[in-house]
Amino acid sequence: MHGIAGKRPKEEIMFVDIDMTGFIANGQSYEGAEKGCVGKRGSKGYKASFAYVHAYKEVLGCLFVVP
User: Fold this and answer.
1) Can you give the pTM of this predicted structure?
2) Cα pseudo-dihedral 9, 12, 15, 18, rounded to 10
3) Which has more confidence, 6 or 15?
4) pLDDT above 60: residue 54
């Protein structure tokens, strides 16, 4: 583990915020981009999930979801 959050004692309570957001893909050749994922109707994009620890300002991970 390279981050601060992973080095804390296991007994310590840690709040992890998990969010999903969309990214618009403008262009013709974005692999895996799907219509209706984000923004305006018919626009193509990706969905991403993030795990974030606010206390340490640390992103634990990011996962791009292809519908």
Assistant:
1) 0.58
2) 30
3) 15
4) yes
- β-pair partners for 50: 19, 62
Model confidence pLDDT, tens digit, residues 29-39: 677 676 765 66
Q: Give me the long-range contacts of 15-18 (CB less than 8 A, separation at least 24).
A: 15/53, 15/54, 15/55, 16/51, 16/52, 16/53, 16/60, 17/51, 17/52, 17/53, 17/54, 18/49, 18/50, 18/51, 18/52
Partner residues linked to 24 by β-bridges: 45
Q: Please compute the mean of the pLDDT values over residues 36-44 and round it to a whole number.
A: 69
Number of domains the chain is built from = 1
Is residue 52 helix, strand or coil? strand
